[in-house]
Write a structure and sequence with these properties.
The chain has about 300 residues and is α/β, with parallel strands linked by helices. The chain folds into two domains: about 15-135 and about 290-300, Aspartate/ornithine carbamoyltransferase (Rossmann fold), CATH 3.40.50.1370; about 135-285, Aspartate/ornithine carbamoyltransferase (Rossmann fold, 3-Layer(aba) Sandwich). It has twelve helices and nine strands. Strands 7-6-5-8-9 form a five-stranded parallel beta sheet. Strands 2-1-3-4 form a four-stranded parallel beta sheet. Helix 4 links the parallel strand 3 and strand 4 (about 125-130). The longest helix is centred in the last third of the chain and has 19 residues, at about 285-300. About 40% of the residues are buried.
Length: about 300
């Protein structure tokens, strides 16, 4: 089976059937990751370029590992030392790379909409690995996979995304994907970090973490970008932790266990206390492993045959 589109640009408008297919396929690939030999010849002969215009550790390594587990030929592109630093445009860079007979491009860029632009100038299949403040679809897919693995469902699951919603592509992709799959989604954070009229997406907004915890099954806690504090978005990191930090004490007041997620990297004792990040209800490391399986599924389902 294949997806309804030959590119993965975002989860906005993606059919529930496509999301379900990716999650089901990821289950098969996760079984492979648990074998002694963690490699299959599925994409042998295919060439994938990781075109990263932004610094990344987790996402780039996860994609590269997924590609190599599928036996694809992998080319990693870095802006530093490339022709981009000499003034070459994205269009020319992509076309020159494609002239070398590649099959797929995994793109990460600081400008929203860049993956969509790339589909108009190259014939290769394009996967969005994060574009500006727009979307980060594979992160949201691995988050949903982790939730489904934990709870056995996404429909009617109560999930709250906590933190800097306004500047998070992870939050937006999660909102789109979870709503499509029938989850009950909310967000929580300082008013300065919540976009205006975000309720129109069909979600609830909270400004007190203590109001949220009794009402949800899972918290997806976002990294606070430390430069936001310098920009006056909130007074101090200590104040943020006091009012929005997820702590063991706060979780202990809930009548049921709350699953804790985080896309990483974690600012310990800012958005999450250390004992929560490493605690029994944290699935953060499971998210990392699931990220490889989900990205294997995406690459497999999009790869040209």
């Amino acid at each position: 089976m294949k997806l309804s589109s030959r590119h993965l640009l975002g989860l906005y408008g993606m059919p529930a059937e496509d999301i379900e297919l990716i999650l089901e396929t990821a289950t098969s690939f996760k079984e492979i990751l648990n074998r002694p030999i963690k490699k299959v010849p599925t994409l042998q002969g295919k060439t994938i370029v990781n075109l990263f215009f932004e610094n990344s550790t987790r996402t780039r390594i996860s994609f590269e590992l997924a590609e190599r587990r599928l036996s694809a030929d992998v080319v990693n592109f870095s802006v530093a030392g490339s022709s981009v630093s000499k003034g070459e445009t994205l269009k020319d860079t992509a076309r020159n790379i494609e002239a070398m007979k590649i099959d797929m491009v995994v793109l990460r860029h600081s400008a929203a909409g860049t993956p969509n632009f790339l589909t108009q100038v190259v014939k290769s299949n394009v996967v969005n690995a994060g574009d500006g403040l727009h979307e980060h679809p594979t992160q949201a897919l691995l988050d949903m996979y982790t939730l489904k693995e934990k709870f056995g469902r996404l429909e009617n699951l109560r999930v709250c995304i906590v933190g800097d919603i306004a500047h998070s592509r992870v939050a937006l992709s999660n909102i789109y994907g979870l709503i499509t799959m029938g989850a009950a989604v909310s967000v929580c954070g300082p008013a300065t970090l919540i976009p205006r009229e975000i309720e129109k997406l069909g979600i609830k907004v909270f400004h007190r973490i203590d109001d949220v915890i009794p009402k949800v099954d899972a918290l997806n806690v976002l990294r606070i970008q430390l430069e936001r504090q310098a920009g006056g978005m909130f007074p101090t990191l200590r104040e943020y932790h006091r009012f929005f930090g997820v702590t063991k004490d706060r979780l202990g007041r809930a009548e049921h266990p709350i699953t804790i997620m985080h896309p990483g990297p974690i600012n310990r004792d800012v958005e999450l206390s250390a004992d929560v990040a490493d605690g029994p209800h944290s699935v953060i490391l499971e998210q990392v492993l699931n990220g490889v399986a989900v990205r294997m599924a995406v690459l497999y389902l999009l790869a040209p045959m």
